[in-house]
Amino acid sequence: MSRLAGDESMRRLRAAIEGLDVGVLVNNAGVSKPYVVFLHEVDVEAWMKMVRVNLWALTEVTAAVLPGMVERGRGAIVNMGSASSEAIPSFPLCNIYAATKRYVAKFSRSLYIEYRSRGVDVQCQAPFFVATRMVPRAIRDNWLSPFLPTPDAYARAAARWIGHGSLCSPTISHQLLWCLASVLPDAVHDWLRLREHLRLRAHRKRAARASATWHAVD
Ligand SMILES: NC(=O)c1ccc[n+]([C@@H]2O[C@H](COP(=O)([O-])OP(=O)(O)OC[C@H]3O[C@@H](n4cnc5c(N)ncnc54)[C@H](OP(=O)(O)O)[C@@H]3O)[C@@H](O)[C@H]2O)c1
């Protein structure tokens, strides 16, 4: 993305929110695809899209609303991070996604320190899986399913946590998973994650092959 493109989008964003009293900003938009792939298999356009949405857009929107919040001496910014970068040591085959979410957590924590004395609260929420269309069916149906809140349940818990620290995982089921994750050695996490993601990758490839055969017969 050229510098000019960034400047132009910032100008348009600032113009769009001029005069608005933005009290709470939730940077929720996120992209997780391509999911479970090796880095050398991903085409550059796909991972640039992930970086643009998860990292760059979140930064630009935050920078655009902050001046108004600072001027009014109040406001809250919630940035959607992920437990994949905060609660577990690696997220193999989803490396760019996890790396963008690590950026979100670090960015939020630093802003929290910078702006809390000026009345602006910045928080990163780092959930495990939530039952949205982002999560593949193979995960929604596996042993983790009792730990997957619905989007509504997540949103209710998320709203209650605003203003309570720079990093949180709002639902009780995710807090339990976080505790469990914290006692497992890193090597065990690494092994489990790689195994699970290779399994999901094989599952996805089988499904793609089946669909191709189906269309060929059709
Ligand atoms: N679901 C999970 O298990 C989970 C876990 C950890 C973190 N998160 C994070 O939570 C956030 C919400 O994810 P979700 O589960 O609700 O995923 P989702 O169902 O796939 O929704 C993604 C959202 O991002 C928006 N979006 C994507 N690309 C965009 C773009 N270029 N411009 C504008 N909007 C765009 C989508 O808008 P459209 O509807 O218009 O496409 C949609 O509202 C994400 O940041 C995600 O990384 C999710």
TrEMBL record:
One of its GO terms (cellular component) is endoplasmic reticulum. This is B-keto acyl reductase. Transmembrane segments: none annotated. GO terms for molecular function: ketoreductase activity. The keyword Iron does not apply. The keyword Oxidoreductase applies. It comes from Paspalum vaginatum (seashore paspalum). Keywords: Oxidoreductase. Belongs to the short-chain dehydrogenases/reductases (SDR) family.
